[in-house]
Design brief:
mainly alpha, 84% helix
């Protein structure tokens, strides 16, 4: 059943995101081609034509990164709206009639949201790679031997550290999504100004619970892989706590609108 919930979430979250991913890649191609043309000519920006090209370059270099941040914003907005509409509005009555525990409903939201953020990050990296291949292909090819040499110099401990770092990043994003869901759920307990209440609950948990404990874990006299493992387990414990709070409140202590 969890798999069916995830398919349902992916279908809803990815309705418009692929179009935005494509726009990001098109902007990367345009910026790369424009940079390639600029690097191949000695422009005099005092003439009207060359000044126009300088303006185009500036516009592309501004719009392209802004598009990536717009993608992140749209992604976050979709995640929040999906949770609110499915659980905290009238549709929640139908969602809770499914033969699935409340934690699985909330977990499916968080897992699907995490995957969409991962896709957004991949789209951003891909656009940067496309830009580099077009605008600076020669230097990229010349740097490949250096990159390969340093890559092969890594030992198993280095790969393990890199892998754990990537896992920690994913766990932190998942944990933050669970915290957002928990704060939104808590905000439904107040009759008015629920948006402010949810934001206040988020900040309160971050400042009172999460940040002090995270600092304590970071200050442990450990280094290397054991320290990274402790950090990952701590963030996973936070995620489990927030998920439990969300499912408990949804199940016992609140009336859907």
């Amino acid at each position: 059943m969890l798999g069916k919930l995830l398919r349902y979430e992916f279908k809803a979250l990815l309705q418009i995101m692929p179009v935005l991913y494509l726009v990001l890649q098109v902007l990367a191609v345009a910026a790369g081609v424009n940079s390639l043309i600029d690097n191949g000519r000695d422009f005099n920006f005092e003439t009207p034509a060359m000044a126009g090209r300088g303006t185009l370059t500036q516009v592309l270099y501004t719009i392209w990164p802004m598009m990536f941040f717009a993608l992140l914003t749209v992604n976050l907005a979709l995640v929040i709206l999906r949770f609110r509409d499915n659980f905290l509005k009238d549709e929640g009555y139908l969602m809770f009639t499914l033969p699935v525990p409340e934690w699985a409903l909330a977990a499916s939201k968080a897992i699907a949201a995490l995957c969409t953020f991962l896709l957004t990050a991949i789209a951003g990296v891909l656009s940067l790679l496309i830009f580099t291949l077009i605008a600076d292909f020669r230097n990229l090819v010349e740097s490949l031997p250096w990159m390969f040499r340093h890559w092969t110099d890594w030992n198993s401990a280095g790969f393990a550290t890199l892998s754990l770092g990537a896992v920690i990043m994913l766990v932190v994003v998942f944990q933050q999504l669970c915290l957002i869901y928990a704060a939104m759920t808590v905000s439904q307990l107040v009759p008015r100004f629920r948006g402010f209440a949810g934001f206040g609950a988020y900040l309160a948990v971050m400042s009172i619970l999460e940040q002090p404990l995270t600092k304590a874990v970071l200050s442990l006299p450990l280094t290397g892989i054991p320290h990274l493992l402790i950090i990952a387990l701590t963030q996973a414990a936070f995620a489990a706590l927030y998920l439990w709070c969300t499912s408990t409140l949804l199940k016992y202590t609140f009336n859907l609108e």
